[in-house]
């Protein structure tokens, strides 16, 4: 086993460092003007517990939350107070087993569900472990993520990948699980008419999930035409290019005209106040609004409108019991997530990868960081 454990560590706002356990560790630092400076730190290879596996990481996607922590140092009540390893959309290869692990073997390629609950609280016992107050979630302060060469994780939150599923697709099970959970919360089913607000990565995986669950019409909105073009490729039946100066009421009229009716499910993947307002105004009476995107802590919403029309408003926090479904969708070919990956970088170029993701350079949708050389662990090229 290699002794080098190259790791991307977020030390603070605009301070992302690439560190290693080697004698002369390479390190980068992103500052506000994106300069690179030389630093030296040590990062040990983890020692596993009996129920854990050691994983040689392969692919790690950059999530909007990773970029947000880099730019702002916090998301809501999750505040960066000490150095944290970044990254949570990931896959890798098992290199070592804990004594009690029987579900996996060395050499298995796995997707990693990054949140591990306490398993004992009422939420966990009721199957809603995403609400567990004791959740340990990768790259959410104060817990480390897995953009590193070697990472340990409980074996029962690792999902073995079939041979024909690539490591990149394994990493994309994380955002796809968000889309699956959102559609389940919205109760999307055969014949559903769905409005999706935002055609970023989460909006697009929600589109894929809604389509796989039988939605007959899917309208997706965004401020950027290039994102809507991708949504159309992925199966959206309608797209709507929004303007920043439009009111929610005006846009709701456009939604109704485009769909020739009202959506019975609206899923907000933006987190902006304007998109949440639009979701409520546009949804048919008795329908469901699901809010996925996280924005300001407090927003102004048309509650009387929602109450008088019995529009349910439901939140989404990550996912719960959705990874297996996401894997089944990908492995069966019912959902193709490959189109989402637009850029590839090696872990040594983590700074360039984050710059591409945060600025949307080259039409970036999902930026993938390769801890090992591309296709090392794929049976066919991605």
Description:
The chain has 382 residues and is an alpha/beta fold. The chain is built from ten helices and 20 strands. The strands form five sheets. Strands 3, 7, 8, 11, 12, 19 and 20 form a seven-stranded mixed β-sheet that branches. The model is unreliable at 22-27 and 31-40 (pLDDT under 50).
Total of DSSP H or I helical runs spanning 4+ residues:
10
For the sheet with most strands, the description reads: 7 strands, mixed
Order of helices and strands: EEEHEEEEEEHEEEHEHEHEHEHEHEHEHE
- What percentage of amino acids are in beta strands? 15-25%
Total strand segments: 20
State the secondary-structure class.
alpha/beta
What fraction, in percent, of the residue positions are helical? 25-40%
Rounded Rg:
21 Å
The CA-CA distance between the termini, in Å, is 26 Å
Nearest-integer average pLDDT: 93
**Unreliable parts:** 22-27, 31-40
Concise summary:
With 382 residues, the chain is α/β, with parallel strands linked by helices. It has ten helices and 20 strands.
């Amino acid at each position: 086993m290699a002794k080098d454990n190259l790791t991307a560590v977020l030390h603070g706002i605009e301070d992302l460092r690439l560190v290693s356990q080697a004698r002369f560790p390479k390190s980068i630092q992103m500052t506000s003007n994106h300069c690179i400076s030389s630093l030296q730190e040590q990062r040990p290879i983890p020692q596993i517990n009996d129920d854990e596996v050691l994983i040689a990481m392969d692919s790690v996607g950059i999530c909007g939350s990773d970029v947000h922590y880099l730019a702002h140092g916090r998301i809501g009540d999750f505040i960066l107070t000490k150095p944290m390893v970044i990254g949570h959309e990931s896959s890798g290869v098992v290199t070592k087993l804990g004594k009690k692990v029987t579900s996996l073997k060395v050499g298995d390629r796995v997707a990693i569900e990054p949140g591990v609950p306490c398993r004992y609280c009422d939420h966990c016992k009721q199957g809603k472990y995403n609400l567990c107050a004791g959740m340990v979630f990768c790259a959410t302060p104060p817990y480390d993520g897995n953009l590193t060469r070697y990472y340990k994780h409980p074996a029962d939150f690792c999902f073995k990948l079939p041979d024909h599923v690539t490591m990149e697709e394994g990493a994309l099970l994380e955002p796809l699980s968000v889309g699956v959970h959102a559609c389940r919360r919205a109760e999307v089913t055969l014949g559903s008419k769905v409005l999706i607000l935002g055609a970023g990565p989460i909006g697009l995986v929600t589109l894929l999930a809604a389509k796989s669950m039988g939605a007959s019409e899917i309208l997706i909105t965004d401020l950027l035409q290039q994102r809507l073009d991708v949504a159309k490729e992925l199966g959206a039946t309608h797209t709507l290019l929004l303007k920043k100066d439009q009111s929610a009421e005006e846009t709701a009229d456009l939604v109704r005209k485009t769909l020739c009716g009202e959506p019975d499910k609206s899923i907000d993947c933006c987190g902006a106040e304007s998109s949440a307002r639009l979701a409520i105004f546009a949804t048919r009476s008795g329908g469901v609004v699901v809010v996925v995107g996280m924005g300001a802590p407090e927003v102004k919403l048309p509650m009387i409108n929602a109450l008088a029309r019995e529009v349910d408003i439901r939140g989404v926090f990550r996912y719960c019991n959705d990874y297996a479904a996401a894997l089944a969708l990908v492995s069966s070919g019912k959902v193709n997530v490959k189109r989402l990956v637009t850029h590839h970088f090696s872990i040594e170029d983590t700074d360039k990868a984050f710059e591409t993701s945060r600025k949307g350079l080259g039409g970036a949708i999902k930026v993938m960081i390769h801890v090992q050389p591309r296709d090392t662990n794929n049976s066919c090229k991605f």
